[in-house]
Amino acid sequence: MHDPHDADWEISVQQLDELLKAGADFDLIDCRGADERALTSIEPSRLVPLPQFETLYEDAFAGREDRRTIVYCRAGVRSLDFARRLRARGVADVKSVAGGINRWNQTFGDGPQY
Questions:
Q1: Which of 3, 40, 48, 95 is the most buried (most CB within 10 A)?
Q2: What gap in Å lies between CA 62 and CA 65, rounded to an integer?
Q3: How far apart are alpha carbons 30 and 43 in whole angstroms?
Q4: Which contacts qualify for 38-42: CB closer than 8 Å, 24 or more apart?
Q5: To the nearest 10°, the Cα dihedral for 111, 74, 91, 68?
Q6: Strands (DSSP E) found in 9-63
Q7: What is the pLDDT tens value at each position of the chain, 114 positions in all?
Q8: Is residue 28 a contact partner of residue 45, using CB atoms and an 8 Å limit?
């Protein structure tokens, strides 16, 4: 299945899967809420809910601006917003997962669609 996405801002679920299998060094951020994460997640990821971005930024990202960061949400909308906020704060190598965890689960059958 072809997954058209903006390569400057997004990574496909297939590309993410390859990075995970290769043991690549990057931060995987789940920007959904804790209730959504309880349903399904992509591991290993850290929960940093988008509504708490400003409050949690220092603890979650200060001093890590040079790390590759990949962000996901349910469908890829919130994670794009999150990626934009990170880039505005100086995190240059950040991408959103195109289609979010729903595309991940649809592609790899790992969990529910919601």
A1: 95
A2: 7
A3: 9
A4: 39/111, 39/112, 39/114, 40/101, 40/105, 40/110, 40/111, 40/112, 40/114, 41/101, 41/111, 42/16, 42/72, 42/97, 42/101, 42/104, 42/110
A5: 20
A6: 10-11, 27-30, 46-47
A7: 345 578 899 999 999 999 999 999 999 999 999 999 999 999 999 999 999 999 999 999 988 889 999 999 999 999 999 999 999 999 999 999 999 999 999 999 867 777
A8: yes
Compute the distance between CA of residue 69 and CA of residue 79 in angstroms, rounded to an integer: 11
Per the confidence metrics, is the pTM higher than 0.85? yes
**What pLDDT does residue 3 have?**
52
Paired strand residues for 47:
30
